[in-house]
Design brief:
alpha+beta, Glutamine Phosphoribosylpyrophosphate, subunit 1, domain 1, Rossmann fold, 6-stranded antiparallel β-sheet, 29 helices
Length: about 625
């Protein structure tokens, strides 16, 4: 696990400033505190920070092929590197190190750009092909590892694992992108391929990017997608048996390491399934860790303890104060752009705890996306059943009117909060799902933004991100479609970003077996009613795990990593929120309707309305501005 950076002169031959490349590299010191190195030649510079996981003494990068015509910088792990190594050696390739990194170099030699199709793992890498004067970059299929890049006005191209590495470039345009702001306040993060700045971008998951000296336009190409190809008819019993076999194989493939290894254990289905499979693979006790909250309404550590006792793991649990709100500025520094998922706070803490004993931790992320485990999946399918009974021409005026007339009853029991449901029913599946997952829906963003900012958007709406994916989706099954939308937006933009930054802040590598692409491909072909049945998500997953986990673990109400936002903003963060709303840097962006900001603060603190999610997104946007220098982060005109 590492941090990588690079600069390429697309005009050819200009010297790369060593001190600039070093500054870029050092911004990511936390990603690889063990060692680092630079490589410079005319027109090219590569930098690397290393966290040693495999081949501890032999993985220093940049790494070259035999005649040094190819140079590689790589972040991630290749889980099938031993099989690939054997195959490549049989084809005549000579290896100089036992590292998984060198496998990529020889795979590129053998198969060119198609090398990515042979790699099983999480990765973001760049290869400089000196004879072809070509830079080839790739990101893993699901977006587990990040890759940012920028094309500068002077013809220099730069890339880095984190956005902060590009912010070291004096030539990077740091104007705030209005479309990215619209997307952030809808999703709670800036979805790929955009970043908050106009001058920087993210490489999409499952894509490669190719640049050739003398040709300044990068060429992006998709090499993989979630197939959702239905399996030939199988009985449920057969599905359950094959699911467990494939899960066990995926977990076992992720256990390759030359350093201490363990797992996160929340006591939920996904993390418990990983620990279960780990316990069945080896003889030594599994190292597990979890965090507890001093407020029982947020604490699920008892369930983690039950799993740990059943499988006799070497378990560690620490209690965290539910009012652990002191990380706001730390998080802004980790994510480099606005990021509003408040579960980043406990995620940071559990990574901090895990790093005390292990260097690699396995996580259960991906289970909800694979098996339709989110509450919003159930809600969306309920709404879709109503849509299927009534044509859009009838639904739109009827439910649109009800949505406008029905009060926003945040204070009421969930069954009476029908406004969002009515609004969703007036839309098609994609827009209805977008409406349901938005942290601030269209109506709320309209109130939040100033008139002048809405004019800058020129009618652009964040739903276009989902519409683009829906139009290209390989399935027309409603449940599969919304799972696909999650895998393209929420999974890489929120979940995987959160875990990557929180873990790398502590030099911890996190692996996600449930997102092994071979496992994802197989699960995507399961019938939808095996994933969501009678209002119960993860149906087939839970059935398959019944011999391994108790019903208390499998069928209890999902809790998640929640924190008491509403109470924080009425209590200990009250003054912080007021300062943020009045921060000149925030107001100078021209983005916000200042009167509405103040109204929300007053209503929330009086307890008459719950604006916690919106106010938190504003608070984290303000933290981003302060962290990045208010004067240098300006709005694009």
């Amino acid at each position: 696990m590492c941090g990588i950076v690079g600069i390429l002169d697309l005009k050819g031959g200009r010297e790369i400033a060593r001190d600039l490349l070093d500054r870029m590299n050092q911004t990511q010191f936390h990603r690889g505190p063990v060692e680092g190195d630079l490589h410079l030649e005319p027109g090219l510079g590569f930098g690397h920070r290393r966290l040693s996981i495999i081949a501890l003494e032999a993985g220093l990068q940049p790494l070259f092929n035999e005649d040094e015509t190819l140079a590689l910088v790589f972040n991630g792990e290749i889980y099938n590197f031993r099989e690939l190594r054997t195959k490549l050696q049989a084809l005549g390739h000579v290896f100089r190190t036992p590292s998984d990194s060198e496998t990529i170099v020889h795979a590129y030699e053998q198969w060119g750009h198609a090398c990515v199709n042979h790699l099983r793992g999480m990765f973001a890498f760049a290869i400089w092909d000196r004879p072809q004067q070509t830079l080839f970059m790739a990101r893993d299929r699901l977006g587990i590892k990040p890759m940012h890049y920028a094309l500068l006005d002077d013809g220099m191209f730069a890339f880095g694992s984190e956005l902060k590495s590009l912010l070291a470039l004096p030539g990077l345009k740091r104007e705030i992108c209005p479309l990215a702001v619209e997307e952030y306040f809808a999703y709670g993060y800036v979805p790929e391929p955009r970043t908050i700045f106009t001058g920087a971008h993210k490489l999409l998951p499952g894509h490669t990017l190719t640049l050739r000296v003398g040709q300044p336009v990068p060429k992006s190409k998709q090499y993989w997608d979630v197939p959702f190809t239905p399996h030939q008819q199988m009985t449920e019993r057969d599905m359950e048996g094959e699911l467990i076999a494939r899960l066990r194989e995926a977990v076992e493939s992720h256990l390759i390491a030359d350093v201490p290894l363990g797992a996160f254990l929340s006591g939920g289905v996904d993390s418990s399934s990983i620990v279960t499979m780990m316990a069945g693979v080896g003889s030594a006790p599994v190292n597990t860790c979890s965090i507890a909250f001093n407020d029982p309404s947020f604490d699920e550590s008892e369930y983690a303890r039950q799993v740990a006792e059943r499988y006799q793991t070497n378990h560690q649990c620490e209690t965290v104060d539910k009012d652990d709100y002191g990380l706001i500025d730390t998080l802004a520094g980790l994510y480099d752009e606005p990021y509003a998922d408040s579960s980043a706070i406990p995620t940071y803490r559990v990574c901090q705890l895990a790093r005390k004993r292990v260097t690699v931790a396995l996580s259960g992320d991906g289970g909800d996306e694979n098996f339709a485990g989110y509450r919003r999946h159930r809600m969306a399918m309920g709404e879709q059943r109503v849509r299927s009974m009534l044509p859009l021409a009838l639904r739109k005026p009827v439910f649109g009117l009800l949505g406008k007339a029905y009060p926003k009853a945040d204070w009421a029991p969930r069954v009476l909060r029908a406004k969002t449901t009515f609004e969703a029913l007036a839309r098609d599946l994609t827009e209805g799902y977008f409406h349901g997952v938005s942290i601030n829906n269209d109506r709320q963003r309209k109130q939040l933004f100033s008139d002048s900012f809405r004019q800058r958007l020129q009618g652009y709406r964040a739903v276009e991100v989902m519409r683009g994916y829906a139009d290209a989706a390989p399935t027309d099954d409603p449940l599969s479609l919304i799972q696909y939308l999650d895998m393209k937006t929420y999974l890489p933009g929120d979940i995987l970003t959160k875990v990557d930054r929180a873990s790398m802040a502590h030099a911890l590598e996190v692996r996600v077996p449930l997102l092994d692409h071979q496992f994802v491909e197989w699960v995507s072909g399961l019938p939808s009613d095996c994933k969501l049945r009678n209002g119960e998500g993860k149906h087939i997953f839970k059935k398959a795990l019944q011999p391994y986990l108790s019903d208390d673990i499998l069928y209890r109400k999902k809790m998640g990593f929640s924190i008491p936002l509403a109470a924080w903003l009425r209590g200990p963060l009250r003054e912080t929120m007021q300062r943020a709303v009045l921060n000149p840097a925030l107001l100078d962006t021209g983005i916000f309707n200042v009167a509405y900001l103040k109204q929300m603060v007053d209503e929330h603190q009086a307890g008459t309305k719950d604006h916690a999610t919106t106010l938190w997104s504003v608070l984290m946007f303000d933290a981003f501005l302060r962290k990045n220098g208010a004067g240098t982060a300006t709005m694009q005109q």
